[in-house]
Amino acid sequence: MKKTAGIIIGVVAALMLVSAAYVHSMSKKPVVKDTFRIGMIAPLTGDAGFVGVGMKNALLMAREQWGDGKYNYEFVFEDDQLDPKLSASAAQKLLNVDKVDAIVTVGHAPRITVPLARQYDIIHFAIAVQKDIPDGVNNFSHWAPSVKLNGLLIKEMQKRGIKKVGVFRTTSLEAWVAYYNDFLEGIKNTDIRVVTDQTFKKGEKDFRSLIARAKPTNPDIYLIFVETPELEIVAKQIREAGINTPFTTLEGFEVTEQPELFEGYWYVSPVEPSEEFSKAYEAKFGKRPPVCSPNAYDIFNLLATAVERAGSSPSKKPATAQIARELKKIKSFPGALGDLLVSDNGMVMSGVQVKMIKNGKPIALEH
Amino acid sequence: MKIEIRNLTKRFDGVTAVNNLSLTLEGGRITGIVGPNGSGKTTLVNLLSGFLPIDGGTVIIDDTITVKKIQPHKIKSYGITRTFQDIRLFEQMSVLDNILVVLTERNLWCALFECHRPEHMQKAEEVLRMIDLWDKRDEPASNLSYGQRKLLEIGRAVSMEARVYLFDEPFAGLFPGMAEIVESILRQLRSQGCAVVLIEHDMDLIRGLTDYVFVLDSGVLLAEGRPHEVLQDRKVVEAYIGN
Amino acid sequence: MDILTQLVINGIIAGAIYTLIALGFNLIYGATKFFNIAHGVFAAIGGYTVFFFFKLSGVSLVPSILAGVLLAGIAGMLSDRLIFLPLRRKRGSSVIMLVASLGLFTALQSVIAIMFSNRFQTLTDIFNIQKTYQIFSGVITQIHIVIIITVISLTIGLFLMLNRTKFGKAVKAISDDEEVARIIGIDTDRVIGYVFFIGSAIAGLGGILIGFDTGIMPTMGMGLLLKGVIASIVGGVGNIYGSVCGGLLLGFVENFGVWKISGEWKDAIAFGLLIIFLLFRPQGVLGK
Predict the structure, then answer these.
(1) Is the ipTM of this complex over 0.90?
(2) What is the average pLDDT value for chain A, to the nearest integer?
(3) Is the peptide bond before A229 cis (omega within 30 degrees of 0)?
(4) Are strands A352-358 and A266-270 parallel, antiparallel or unpaired?
(5) In this predicted model, what pLDDT tens digit does every residue of B153-180 receive, in sequence order?
(6) Among A304, A351, A285, residue whose Cα is nearest residue A54
(7) A218 at the C interface (CB within 8 A)?
(8) What average pLDDT does the segment B47-51 reach?
(9) Which residues of chain C does B115 touch, with a Cβ-Cβ cutoff of 8 Å?
(10) Below-50 pLDDT ranges, chain C
């Protein structure tokens, strides 16, 4: 009896030893991968909530497709409801609490994040049109450049014989101001003139007197630089004032929930995302990819590519300067928004195109 | 008609304005309440009309209703009404409406449509003629002179057809002609068996008009009785002159 | 289109919309003597009730509007019963009431946002273009005609209510002196409750009409309230007819203002008008 007990104890002890040694050797085997943290500041709720949700989806999808890379990639998503105050607190949280290595932004957040990215020496990727946001050191941007968008807009106007442009625009959002300044710059040496320029604050709902002012100038087309819901309200009130002049804009019409209002009108926007991306997105999330989601998708792929090229060892992620250097080396990259090129000043160049609302859907016009 | 006040007390931040006061207001007589400034006369009226919450004591109305708490909108049902030292009229309304607003059937139908019955108009005319304001009935109350405003406020109180009237210095600042009108109104109410309470500083008026007098000093009852006797009381004289 | 005619029409339209909010605000201010910030949110409640019944649930138009007006009124009356009446009983100052109403405003606005999201919504199926009519050389849409007629009828209705009914007399009495109103036997708590119902129901109707004109958002209340308050102060706070005067004056000044200067100045013009009145004529055009 005593003997059997002794044997059992001996066997158990031996088994424990062996298994301990095995576990030890197993845990030692894979190298601990370093984690690259990416924060996102975008509206996840509110009027523009669909934009941030689309970006979040696209980032998650891109990481899933990236698979098992050299590093782990982690996301922290912050909702700023397109409110600069919330953007600022979100940026502080990402930098000080989550200690992220890169931030992806849209809306008001880019402007706020630019100096912080320099101060904390991280990579900041903005989905923003302003020319002065990217610096090629810490700050990068991925949006069809305003000059390119306006160039095509002006070319299309010339092609259609448009001479007199009536403008309705908000001065509350920097991006629209930037677009408008580039538009003015672009028409300098053409015969296109702005015959009336009506400006208003975001949140305005009554444009009737501005329309009354604009009406006698009889423009050939109304250029509307504001997003939903003011876009639709302006358009509706122009129609209600008995004006049948067509509308155009940059980007805006495809974001509208009332495409009926813009049926048959052309506009200029960044190229459609690739079929491959759209189909994958739709299959995964049951919806067409919203605006900014292909940009977010490309940003992850560009970032991960640069990070893995710059990194020497999986246990230690590369420094920001190294990542920035690798990013700027990318001169041809198959992205969701076509063939991408990262300029030396940190701007990702993607294509632009003329589109039209047909049967309530945006379609690309052939040139 | 009778109002019995038992051990009534009211304190303001440590100052006892009315201190354990007990007195009875009888119907069919004019009761004068006198006392130096700050003796608690107006506080007593404010307590009886629900303008101030009672801190202690009870009020017994007609031997049957005992209350420890009086709410302003209830005093009409107790048959109590009052006027104010600083006249309080409905300034936005016409003279006539200041009276008519009191004479109201308070039901839904009458609230939706202005259905003043002929007897309401009759009563209003009677009151306004009594206070000599019938000719000014369509003018806004804010246009009246001081004396006319005072009369209108008394007229409004009379229209309430109450059984207890608390008049807070109704004669103050009135010309003799107007004072006579007020006097006759007070006498008329007494003859109808109402309890009429008169706060007054003018001792000649108290002697000439009242049937019974309470003298208050620092919230306590100093003396009571027939005016001629009470006003010669040494304590009373001291209360007025002494300080 | 003659621009002047159109500006006059636009001024009247904007004025009518501001009046719609100022009417109920002034009615409640008259009876309670405090700035009821929550007044703005009842406009949103009206708009969102119609949105829920008419657009989401397919109930026909008239019952939906009735439900919206009724619900806004009931919400207003409840706000008095549950918050403002207890505060009045405790003799809360008008500043305390104002802060409480601001709290109520924020809370109810958040509830609407949680239920229906923060997005801008329209009450009709699409941004359908309204039928328009020609007046002299200007144009006006169907819904604006409805708004103007509504404001005229409401003003006449309130005038009759205040001057030709016993209820109106009770409201005036309370507005003059609530304490005296009580001692002459007016149940002031109940009358003020009804005043809240009527005032909030008018705000609800305003929210619905504005919803049909442009659209609704949970945050629509604050903007409307501010313009309504400016209209009230300019016209004479607590004065029903002052609402109309102030609303129209504000509408005209805003619309004629942007004739010569750019549109971003609209709010600045409105608040400039407010400051001018506060400095030089604080009792408003009509006074109390």
Answers:
(1) no
(2) 90
(3) yes
(4) antiparallel
(5) 999 999 988 999 999 999 988 999 999 9
(6) A285
(7) no
(8) 89
(9) 166
(10) 127
A236 chain-C contacts, CB cut-off 8 A: 127, 129
C237-272 pLDDT, tens digit per residue, is 888 889 999 999 999 999 999 888 888 899 999 999
Cβ neighbour number for residue B174 with a 10 Å cutoff: 18
In CATH, the number for domain A146-270 is 3.40.50.2300
d(CA C186, CA C31): 13
For chain B, report the end-to-end CA distance as a whole number of angstroms.
37
Sorted by sequence, the CB contacts under 8 Å of residue B7 that are 6+ apart come out as B20, B21, B22, B56, B57, B58
Which residues numbered 156-215 in A keep a CB inside 8 Å of some CB on C?
171-172, 198-201, 203-210, 212-213, 215
Residue owning tokens 């041809």? A332
Q: Is 80 exceeded by the pLDDT of residue A27? A: no
Interface with chain C: mutation pick from A169, A239, A240, highest number of C CBs within 10 Å: A240
Q: Running DSSP on this structure, what letter comes out for residue C51?
A: I
The pLDDT confidence band at residue A20, using thresholds 50, 70 and 90, is low
Q: Which chain B residue has its CA at the smallest distance from C90's CA?
A: B53
* pLDDT score for B115: 63
pLDDT value of residue B14: 81
DSSP conformational letter for B140:
B
Break chain A into its structural domains and give their ranges.
Answer: 35-144+273-350, 146-270
The predicted structure's pLDDT at residue A195 = 96
B-chain residues near C188 (CB < 8 A): 73
Provide the residue ranges of all domains of chain C, joining segments of one domain with +: 2-280
Contact C183 B81 (CB under 8 A): yes
The sheet carrying A352-358 orders its strands as: A266-270, A352-358, A361-364
| C-chain residue closest to B159, CA distance | C184
* A47 with C119: Cβ contact below 8 A: yes
- The CATH class that applies to domain C2-280 reads mainly alpha
Q: What does the alpha-carbon distance between residue C18 and residue A324 come to, in Å, rounded to a whole number?
A: 55
**Residue-wise burial string across A274-306, b where 16 or more C-beta atoms lie within 10 A, e elsewhere:** beebbebbeeebeeebbbbbbbbbbbbbbbbbb
**Contact check, Cβ <8 Å, C264/A200:** yes
User: A11 or A29: which carries more pLDDT confidence?
Assistant: A11
| Chain B residue with Cα closest to C238 | B92
Give residue A3's pLDDT: 65
All residues of chain C having their beta carbon less than 8 Å from the beta carbon of residue A208 are: 6, 10, 13-14, 255
Nearest to C186 among B73, B77, B81 (CB): B73
Chains contacting B (3 or more CB pairs within 8 Å)? C
Taking each helix axis as running N to C, give the angle between helix C188-213 and helix C142-164, from 0 to 180 degrees, rounded to the nearest 10. Answer: 170
Chain A residues whose CB is inside 8 A of the C217 CB are 229
Would you state the pLDDT for residue B243?
Answer: 45
Task: Centre a 10 Å sphere on the Cβ of residue B215 and count the other Cβ atoms it contains.
Answer: 24
C7 touches chain A (CB under 8 A): yes
A311-351 pLDDT per residue, tens: 988 889 999 999 999 999 999 999 999 889 999 999 998 88
Q: Which residues on adjacent β-strands are paired with residue A269? A: A353
| A47 in C contact zone (CB under 8 Å) | yes
Please write the tens of the pLDDT for every residue from A116-174: 999 999 999 999 888 889 999 999 999 888 888 999 999 999 999 999 999 999 999 88
Considering only alpha carbons, which residue of chain C is nearest residue B116?
A: C166
CATH class of domain segment(s) A35-144+273-350: alpha beta
Residue A28 above 60 pLDDT? Answer: no
Q: Please tell me the distance from the alpha carbon of residue B60 to that of residue B24, in angstroms, as a whole number.
A: 9
Task: Specify whether the CB–CB gap between C154 and C166 falls below 8 A.
Answer: no
d(CA B40, CA B66): 22
Check B50 against C173: CB less than 8 A apart. no
